[in-house]
Structures
1.
Amino acid sequence: MSELNLILLGPPGSGKGTQGERLQEDFRLPYYATGDILRSAVKEGTEIGLKAKEYMDRGDLVPDEVIIEIIGERVQREEAQDGFILDGFPRTVPQSEALGKEMEDLERKLSAALLIEVSDEEVVRRLGGRRTCAANGHVFHIEFNPPKEEGVCDLDGSELLVRDDDRPEVIKRRLQQFHEKTSPLAAYYDEKGILQHVDGDRPPDVVADEIRGTLATIRREEEI
Ligand code: AP5
């Protein structure tokens, strides 16, 4: 079967992480989420982490060159030879161009860019109630996807926390950055014929089923 190289696009809180976890389980492919990678770097106090933190705390995007290097190295890994799932990258036109160039150099192709669409009002509701586990970043929501035991991760038992950038003024800035810098990628990937719209304003299982259906269609078309 051909490789599956996927991009998850969408505003903050659209469910990229939630769907990314499921896709990872379905396809057993490496999952590279730039937000998670940066948060780990911040936690470990690495040079990249120290540099990224000030941007993330404000809700701004970190500079392109930092992120491009991080992802460039990962898609070349042995574990990513059958495909990969990218969450949160690319996020700007220069990032998408850099990824395009990298794929060309590796003689590989992107399979699909899944754009998960939700309104700004829904983003605010979701991020306000999000809880993330301290150990592995598993994601819950106090109302829409509650853990079995309050404040405790179902999967690894670690504490559930509110993310530093889920404060109202930072959410507003992140949304602004999305509309300004990431929205243009929809037209970019549409032109390349790989954009797939996903209505993210439905329960997570329904969204996951739609994505599975879309990917099954793409794979069938590839086989024809
Ligand atoms: P990142 O961590 O990527 O944040 P984000 O894109 O803002 O996305 P989120 O993680 O907030 O949301 P999500 O779409 O994954 O939604 P989730 O599934 O958690 O980036 C953080 C920062 O890092 C950026 O601001 C930037 O500074 C930097 N950065 C990262 N990548 C970068 C790049 N490429 N370039 C430059 N800078 C970069 O869901 C949210 C909540 O809703 C959860 O509580 C969940 O349980 C709930 N939920 C999910 N789906 C549903 C549903 N269908 N119905 C109801 N509730 C739902």
2.
Amino acid sequence: MKTYSLLAIILLCFCLHAEDGSQLWLRYEGNANAQITANVKNSKTVDIALSELTQYWKGAPVLLEKKRTKTTDEGFTIVSDKKNNSLKIVASTDIALLYGAYHLLRLQQTGQVTENLNISQTPKYQYRILNHWDNLDGSIERGYAGRSLWEWEKLPNEISPRYEQYARANASIGINATVLNNVNANPKILTQEYLQKVKVLADIFRPYGLKVFLSVNFASPKTLGGLPDADPLNPEVAKWWKAKAKEIYALIPDFGGFLVKANSEGQSGPQDYGRSHVDGANMLADVLKPFGGIVMWRAFVYAPSSDDRAKQAYLEFMPFDGKFRDNVIIQVKNGPIDFQPREPVSALFGAMQKTPVMVEFQITQEYLGFSNHLVYLSPLFEECLQTDTYAKGQTSTVAKTTDGSLFGHRISAIAGVANTGSDVNWCGHDFAQANWYAFGRLAWNYELTSEQIADEWIKQTFNDKKEFLEPVKGLMLSSREAVVDYMMPLGLHHIFAMGHHYGPEPWCYFPNMRQDWLPPYYHKADSEGVGFDRSKTGSNAVAQYFPPLNEKYGNIEQCPEEFLLWFHHVAWDYKLKNGRTLWDELCYSYDNGVKEVRDFQKIWDRMENYVDAERFELVQTKLQIQARDAMWWKDACLLYFQSFSQLPIPYDIERPVHKLDQLQKIKLSISNHENAILETINR
Ligand code: GCV
């Protein structure tokens, strides 16, 4: 028996080939030579479906049948025709046939093909969008996987093969839209020169069903058009935008529309002219309406003067509910602050009922260890989407308040800030690919569980050997809790280093700086305790939630402990449900986070025989960085908060390996993730 398993392992190692992660989850084996036909006049999209299946489908003959169906334009059915020993993919559009083809291949890759297939699928959201924070100079804001995929300098003449690979990867998971440029938008994107480049990308993406959107700078009529202002109520401004829209649609007839970050973090907007978000969004909506375009208007707004940043989006947008045009959708970050490893959901979900609202997730790991830390984000996405807002009875999950079903909206959308870049493995960390994948799969169907998604991703990206699948799945599924434990347990938040947000800096304080950009504004540690009081006795942010959430969050006894310090300023000796004091629980949580990452290392090292050497080593190295970072977080936070609590770190916990003053001297000058890696290694 022993000899047999040894042989099997040797054989497996032999079969594994050298590789670089560039194939993502699309690792079909070629030369299948299946018999694939279509009842439809070939289009580029149908040709792709035919070609993918002909090369890679190893089962019964497949007919792609286009006909009117009850499903939506993008929905498809896969049915076995037992009599003829064949299969049919039925859909009413070409793109839906392609989605069906990718689904069939996914079933094959994950061992789910049965004799009697009868599957009907239809996506939950109409627009399933990646937001690229890519700048025109090739850098990416909060990007940790190299440079931008878009080689603006070389476009429109030189075409990178990655453009089509990108479109294919997105189509394979049902992502159907992409915003190419940073929300901190350079007006230049709207010049004829750049629009010609955008057109080339749109043409490549189109057969894969990927619609192109652009982020626009609200001041463009002034900075680009030479007008004296960009006031949305100035007819000359509206005229400028109309002409611009005409120019765009002449090049890209199926252009999706605009994404706008206005009057936020220094970006211009309608408020510069005494106008409102409604004035700004509706002006652009009117411009896009004749072409079928939409405006995604972001609610990420906060002013330095506020008593509680977490309340601001709600305060600013709720009065406008119902006042936006029907082709405007409000894009809201999943939590009220900013993509922290854990946040309660934004109170705007469920509250804005007359205007469509969409969730914005961050797939790139700005606050989660960049592309150095292995964090599977599907549980974070799932937690948000499945949170009940109680807006309309018991089943008003964030998913249902945003998919158009609960409030009967015509448009629905979901966005994820992309983690892709020029790195050969696309995302910097091989496991970060799972976050792109999970976003797409949940956008298609938020009823999938994180476990199911991890299962299918591992089988497609690595292998389906039980000895590999089960431990790695376990690792992925616990990775999000681990990062919460070693970065911000019990609802602590925004205690990240200033600016780059890599590593801890809970002490960071400058009296003359915007206080809401500094950690003490959020943790409020003092000799009594720690945490932000958002209950009735504090900022009363809890009042923005529907009952019973407002009561639950507002009452220290009932508040879920994962949000305790988010909603309450809690005494160091406050007793938690497990009988520990707050201080002790903080210590054990940080310690647990470190232990979890050390366990991830142990699990991964055991996987060496099941994975190619390249990916094994890259992940191993990154886990080493993550383990060191986790200890850094633990020591920095515990030693710093201890200076307030004046309590001992429980003696059964591993002792700090750093001194606080040493840690306080660390200043990472991170312009990109390579620096972060180097500097953390050299620390
Ligand atoms: C694109 C946070 C990030 C910024 C980002 C901003 C936003 O503040 O740190 O880099 O800017 O969110 O979402 O607009």
3.
Amino acid sequence: MSNLGSCNTTNQAVIQWVKEMADLCQPDRVYWCDGSEAEKQALTAQAVADGVLLKLNPEKLPGCFYHRSNPNDVARVEQCTYICTDVETDAGPTNNWAPPKEMKERLYGLARGGMKGRTLYVIPYLMGPAGSAMSKVGVELSDSIYVALNMRIMTRMGRIAYQQLGTSDDFNRGLHCMLDVNPERRYICHFPRENLIISVGSAYGGNVLLGKKCLALRIGSYLGRQEGWMAEHMLVLGVESPRGEKTYVAAAFPSACGKTNFAMLIPPERFAGWKVWTLGDDIAWMKPGPDGRLYAINPEAGYFGVAPGTNYKSNPNAMQTIARDTIYTNVALTPDLDVWWEGKDGEPPAQATDWQGRPWTPASKEKAAHPNSRFTAPMANNPALAPEVNDPNGVPISAIVFGGRRATTMPLVFQAFNWTHGVFIGATLGSEMTAAAVGGMGQVRRDPMAMLPFCGYNMGGYFRHWLRMRKRLKFPPRIFHVNWFRKDAEGNFLWPGFGENMRVLKWIVDRCHGRADANETPLGWVPGAKDIDLEGLDGFTAEHLEEALNIDLEEWRRELLMQEELFLKLYSHLPKELIFQRELLVSRL
Ligand code: SAT
Ligand code: MN
């Protein structure tokens, strides 16, 4: 019988489960997190003593720490990620599937005695604002102090979760064992019917911070279908006009396509008096409200953002957010204990230690920071954090935006004709692959609603759920598609991006309020060159904008064929509405 330590909850279901898992994993100690400031200090000191964290220069980066992961463990691994449902078709052709009983046996086998000599951290956490009917409680049991400290930033962690839970046994159970961090024994497995997650053999980000992709998206999407809400891979922002009108926008982009930058956008000078507020940068839970609008909460409480490319030009609010109380993972370290990454402001340091702990200089061939190196920072640090982020009711969404990283084909922005057409646009979303997942960088892959790696059930059923949501909404959000990444024949970006995206955002907001013009095209409503404010955008003319908005029929022929591949893969569960939408698009083109 394991020593359970000083348990800090009276919830019998939690205690019982911790007992079972401690008996299985046999940790030397069980530590029950309470989320307090004193605990943060103590755990951080322990992590430093264990060599898991390194304290960064307190003058430059107060409260910040540095971590290197195992070089074989630097991104999510989709090949090791499973949805374990009774019937294989429930997981669908886009997920790895395994039968729950067999998979649990294998995982419990791996976990048996797997925490000997280690501490098991009991991490209770709340996804979403306290007291919200949309929030969910999870309890993650992990033998990683790094996970405990990251979960403390990424979620509302500690007693607050037990308060929300009360005496209920309705919480997500998450077991995480690092084992020997061996890719051969790496599994991230979801058991939606039991609201259970088991992750072994990794210690990195989305594989192990179980509240994030595992609960908030994979299990969340499954629960959302059952309970009539949506779990989406979306940032949420609020646009405030000079008159104080606030319009809320949710936007889905695949991992590492700039969601954090967009969520923290600072409008350019031309938009004096406008303000963009951040609700969330990665995940939205959305539910129809009593007034027939779609309401969103951000289940998270922090940002697990990509470091490379983050600087005072691309994202000043992120730079301020990560200036304190932040954990940096797999970036480069300078001799004065500052951090560096490719695309940070200023000159590269003359010398540094790279993400693998090797000496690095600007002459080195390899990158100093891993392309998927990350910061974990509390949302409270964000100067543009929307106060509504703690509103238990969430915020009403006026626009849903889909976007991908596409060098060709996709115009800067267009608007769907209606909800069903918008679902088709989201369902056929494509993007060039990034470093956030292990795999073929740069290739275009279909990533429906940016949920391909995160949908916890059959993608066809997920599309059907989207279509059905329309019936529950009196005022459905308008749906848009954007592409900040289109290039000209020489490979230069056609659109300046970053803060200038405000110009496109303003058009989107105005469309929602019936205030902006657009032209009907085969793809949807596209702004004319005069409909997007270009004033103050030096050297960027209406002709440039037209190029960025252009629809090239030859490119679209190829696009349609690529889209067809996904539809064929999903055919058996594909709602007929989407097949009709495809036919309509073909005939319009
Ligand atoms: O999955 S992570 O949380 O590591 C990051 C991402 O891919 O969005
Ligand atoms: Mn993400």
4.
Amino acid sequence: MGAPLNIVIVGGGTAGWMTAAGLSLACPPQLATITLIESDDIGTIGVGEASIPSIAHFNSLLRIDEREFMAKTRATFKLGIEFVGWGGEGQSYMHPFGSFGTNFDLAAFHHYWLRLKQMGEGGDILDYNLSAVLSRQGRFAPPSPDKNSPLSSVVYAYHFDAGLYARYLRSYAEARGARRLEGMITQVGQNSETGYIEGVTLKDGRVIAGDFFIDCSGFRGLLIEGALKAGFEDWSHLLPCDRAVAVPSENPAQLTPYTRATARKAGWQWRIPLQHRTGNGLVYSSSHMSDDEAAQTLLSSLEGKALADPRPIRFLTGRRKSAWVKNCAAVGLSAGFLEPLESTSIHLIQKGVSKLIQCLPRQATAGGAFAPHLMDHFNRETRHEYEDVRDFLMLHYKANARDGAFWRYCREQDISDRLKARMDLFRESGRIFTGETELFRDPSWLSVMLGQGIFPQDYDPLADRMTIDDIRQNLAHISRTYLRSAAQAPRHEDFLQQHFGKPNIATEIV
Ligand code: FAD
């Protein structure tokens, strides 16, 4: 075994501390030393509140206790996202977590439902998804240990404060040997021959040397772009929102166990309930809406009193052409950004951290090269992850049924061949084929395609193997069982109060 790899993480936002936590668990000191540099003067992006179920996997890898995580990050539970007005004013649908119904036979569940729909029966597809049924009733229960209970299959994520999560993970990583340095990096030193990063210089003159650098410096991409010129693939013509304005507000009496995404004139508004406050924000296209109008739209539609002034945020949608260049890998906003419509950024950080752990290089060889195949793998996977999310987000915009210049632009924009083929296939035959490694699988595509108004002309002929009476009975049984089971779960706010008490807003961080 050679000398330990000297890893330097630049940035102490959610990405930096998730990376430090993951690496500090995976790498004993004889394998790697971990230093994280962050600047209080620069600060973090300060938003990020909704997640998807994979976050529980990350926390369990770190052996983080769920109750402690929820208490520290003021988390609530999330069963999906309600989309309001995307299919036109007055319409709403849900993208719930988990699957629909059960697989009776050879065809996927929704084909039996489509067969009933052709006869004007079958109700709403959401009647057959437990998360959606719980959400409608405002209820939540963790998965029941009784495997015979439908509640054993509850799939959930969290709403939480990503800033508090970073703070929590900081103590986790420091307890496992990660070193934190406070200071602003003013210079990046590179080897004059190889271009490899050798060290970074702080404002006070300290030089921090390293073997491998992880750029978690946020949108600025201090190392990956500033020093290594990785290049940026701009996707703003595909996803035209480029700004957001965010404001916290007081909680209403009832805390929905889901995120709400309400379509607005030139973008959409999020509403995310935490234990002690509600996070709100409007994501919009600056070509179609002014900053003042965005702030006004947001403030005039809050459900509780604003707890701070609205905060503007600018962003550029796209990804670094290479997330790993020479001896530096980017994780978090420095690797790329896709708007938060499906709450995917923290998940992409998590993927970045697990890929880094899988691809951890040894000490650089005398020639300075890290294994190029590790780098290629990391870059290829990262590209697929970002493209998959991009296409899924574009579906929401492409298949909208709203009036106005922004929404017309979104309907008319070009989409990838893969997305077009997927929409056409579903429209023609009700079929969905997603790959094993895709983040959003068949149930997610089903919810959003149906919700956005793409209704199949046909269903899988294999659904004809069951008699129509059996289909009727089976579906009625599922929806009845889900309704009955959901009614046994406590209301979301009652569950939270029972486990975490009533938070005192005056003493909380907003
Ligand atoms: P940052 O938080 O920007 O951290 C950058 C770090 O680098 C800071 O510590 C800073 O001090 C440091 N730094 C920078 N330059 C220097 C320097 N020169 N010297 C020293 N240190 C430096 N994600 C979700 O999963 N769910 C959501 O609901 C969600 N909502 C979002 C809403 C909006 C409007 C936006 C813009 C993003 C949202 N995200 C969401 C994304 C999420 O906020 C980020 O992915 C996450 O916070 C990670 O940010 P980061 O750590 O990469 O960058």
